[in-house]
Amino acid sequence: MQQPVWWQRGVIYQIYPRSFKDSNGDGIGDLRGVIEKLDYLRDLGIDAIWVSPFYPSPMVDFGYDISDFTAVDPMFGTLADFDELVEGAHARDIRVIVDFVPNHTSDQHAWFIESRSSRDNPKRDWYFWRDAKPDGNLPNNWLSVFGNVAWEWDEKTRQYYLHTFLKEQPDLNWRNPEVKAAMFDVLRFWLDRHVDGFRLDAVHYIMKHPDLPDNPPNPTRGSGFKPLGDYDSLLHVHDMAHDDIHGIFREFRALLNSYSTERPRFSIGEIHMQDWGKWASYYGANLDELHMPFNFSFMFAPWEVRAMQAVIDNLETHIPAGAWPNFVLGNHDEHRIASRVGRERAPAAMMLLLTLRGTPTIYYGDELGMEDVEIPPELQQDPWGKNVAGFGLGRDPERTPMQWDASPNAGFCAKDIPPWLPLSPDYALVNVETQLRDPRSMLMLTRRLLALRRATPALNVGAYRAVPHDTCLVFGREDGHDRWLVAINLTDEQTIVQIPEHGSGQIVISTKLDREEMVKLDALILRSHEGCIIHLTS
Q1: CA torsion sign, 445 to 447 to 450 to 451?
Q2: Which of 19, 98, 405, 466 measures 20 to 30 Å from 55, CA to CA?
Q3: How far apart, in whole angstroms, are the C-alpha atoms of residue 282 and residue 34?
Q4: Are residues 63 and 130 in the same domain?
Q5: Residue 374: helix, strand or coil by DSSP?
Q6: Do residues 357 and 462 lie in contact, with contact meaning Cβ atoms separated by under 8 Å?
């Protein structure tokens, strides 16, 4: 049997660099701030960091509108800082994953500036330029995820260009081989700087139907994971996820494989898709495409047994044989887990994330139970929330600065410097320094869970076995004769789990961090929102 590699055994920790640690006094986090906190990350027990975009950008979409794919924005530091970050992380046995944003560039990128300069510019076809229809209407009916139509008029060349997101983010034409070659050179640039993998942003958008036909109307206006306003009025069958994307993914995987002779390189794709079969197809028919497409389903499932169990069952049913699953509870685009399910349930959610079969991703601050922060209108930054008002799509609340200590500005930046987003009013209580002194804190629970997971093959790469129950999520993890049971009460009431066929065992960790006794599983008492990891002995 092939030995599991680091991205199967390990835990990924997402860092949103603007909000992690400011090292130079401008109120914005940066790469040197991440370097300063590498020891914290090592002691936490994670195995890889995913660093969200730090590339040069006008910051219209806070780094996802990139004007240079192979440099570092001075706001975040220098390439030398990045190299030092990678070296320091590797010295602590932490891998480094970076964002790769393949669907679009900034409208300030040199490629787009050339492309829009004239209709006969050699880079014209690097983007999607189209005439208006004979009746003067738009080239088609496609809509932007961020509100309004997906076409922007260029007065100089008298054509429209396509933008799936903001008008400042024109879409690249991946059917042009020059675009693909240039973007693969971007990957090589960062691989040569020793990154361990890529998180592929919005990657299912890169291949559209070659004829750009109208999308059909959506009779239900149902969006999928969450309401997106007018974008939901169409079925997005032609503006994303064309079948030709699989060929691109296979070439991408081959490139990563060519760099994996010394140590395995890794890819995980941001793919929002409710069709489990189509989602699973991005592993590749021969497991030769993405190492993993992100599984976002937990972030949108109600906190109740049937819904959560359905996510696990669907994944286990549809994932191809030999493929590796993953789970995520939070990121820079969705409300924090402690706000979605309640702070009292957050410890159970963390236990669930770190004990299921598959690679977990932790969002910075979730190890503390950080919550969303209400941002006053005059301080809001995110264009999505501004452009599509009334749907709660603004992402500022989950992007607020990391809370390091109880000092002014939570140790994120100097006390006399305003941070780029307001801090949570509870930072004096919810912060790293305070929780390190509390043996029953969320941070200490997370550290214990990570340490147990790392030390226990059954919990990081072992088999998964569902144990049906009405009010609790119960499942087994097994590696040979080493058997474990995880039982999590998702309700507000104490409950008794009766599974006598599992015998007895030792509670190794409770989310309450106050019990480690032997228990018989014919009557396991779980308090409200309590989870237990039990090492089975019979």
Answers
A1: negative
A2: 405
A3: 32
A4: no
A5: coil
A6: yes
In degrees and rounded to multiples of 5, residue 476 shows phi and psi of -105, 150
Give the burial string for 91-122 (b: 16+ CB within 10 Å, else e).
eeebbbbbbbbbbbbbbbbebbeebbeeeeee
Contact between 212 and 231 under an 8 Å Cβ cutoff? The reply is no
Rounded to two decimals, the pTM is 0.97
Number of domains in the chain: 3
CATH number of the domain to which 122 belongs: 3.90.400.10
Buried-state track 430-455, b at ≥16 Cβ within 10 A, e below 16: bbbebbeeeeebbbbbbbbbbebbbe
Same domain, residue pair 441 and 468? no
Contact status, residue 10 vs residue 392, Cβ threshold 8 Å = no
Average pLDDT over residues 238-244: 98
Three-state SS letters, 5-30? CHHHHCCEEEECHHHCCCCCCCCCCC
The closest alpha carbon to 509, from 525, 486, 491, 490, belongs to 486
What's the 3-state SS for 23-67?
CCCCCCCCHHHHHHCHHHHHHHCCCEEEECCCCCCCCCCCCCCCC
What is the tens place of the pLDDT at every residue in 295-320? 999 999 999 999 999 999 999 999 99
Asked if the structure places residue 168 within a domain, the reply is no
The pLDDT-based confidence of 223 (bands split at 50, 70, 90) is: low
Give the integer Cα–Cα distance in Å for 278 and 272: 11
Q: Is residue 170 part of a domain?
A: no
Tell whether 54 and 158 lie within a shared domain: no
Q: Residue 80 has which token pair?
A: 């030398």
Q: What values do phi and psi take at 451, rounded to 5?
A: -65, -45
Question: Whats the size of the chain, residue-wise?
Answer: 538
pLDDT recorded at residue 388: 65
Residue 456 lies in a domain: no
**Host domain of residue 154:** 110-162
Within-domain flag for 117 = yes
Place of tokens 């008029």: 153
Tokens, residue 513: 């961090």
Q: pLDDT (tens digit, 9 = 90+) per residue, 395-430?
A: 999 999 999 999 999 999 999 999 999 999 999 999
As beta bridge partners, residue 12 has 48, 361
- CA neighbours closer than 13 Å in the CB half-sphere of residue 369: 23
Helix boundaries (H) for 323-455: 337-341, 346-355, 383-387, 432-436, 442-455
Taking alpha carbons only, the member of 279, 127, 138, 153 closest to residue 208 is 127
Query: For residues 38 and 94, is the Cβ–Cβ distance under 8 A?
Result: yes
Average pLDDT of the segment spanning 219-246: 89
Spatial contact of 209 and 174, defined as CB atoms under 8 Å apart? no
Say whether both 19 and 131 belong to one domain.
no
Instruction: Give me the active site residues, please.
Output: 201, 270
**Residue linked to tokens 């963390």:** 350
Say if residue 314 is in the same domain as residue 333: yes
State the DSSP string of 306-342.
Answer: HHHHHHHHHHHHHSPTT---EEES--TTS--HHHHH-
**Rounded Cα distance, 328 and 293, in Å:** 11
Query: Widest CA span of the chain, in angstroms?
Result: 77
